[in-house]
Write a structure and sequence with these properties.
about 110 residues; 4 strands; mainly beta; about 35% strand
């Protein structure tokens, strides 16, 4: 399993929003509202945000960590693709989900 290099978060498409986080925190949600968000294990979806999901139905970083820590010898990634901002976090160790890719989203 390849660990990608961690990067520093930059601004997304909105300069008023500030830079994106360098790490995915336990209280963050895997969801973007409009776009696509997922947790994958070796590229296979474990959780995917579905249209119309409520905030409390979205998986948290802590829930993703609980799954990943029980099966750590895999490539676990959280992907968030929204308008004007997209990013991918990879699990780099216990409790550490590092930003490995950032883009301008799909719009």
């Amino acid at each position: 399993m390849e660990k990608h290099e961690a990067i520093k978060g930059k601004h997304g498409g909105c300069l008023n929003c500030g830079p994106r986080p360098d790490v995915f925190a336990p209280d963050m949600r895997i969801g973007v509202g409009f776009g696509m968000a997922s947790l994958t294990r070796d590229g296979a979806p474990v959780f995917v945000e579905e249209s119309g999901m409520e905030w409390d139905q979205l998986m948290t970083g802590a829930q993703a960590e609980a799954l990943a820590s029980a099966d750590p010898d895999h490539d676990w990634q959280i992907t968030l693709e929204g308008p004007l901002s997209g990013r991918t976090y990879q699990r780099h160790g216990p409790g550490l989900w590092a930003l490995i890719e950032q883009n301008q989203g799909f719009a």
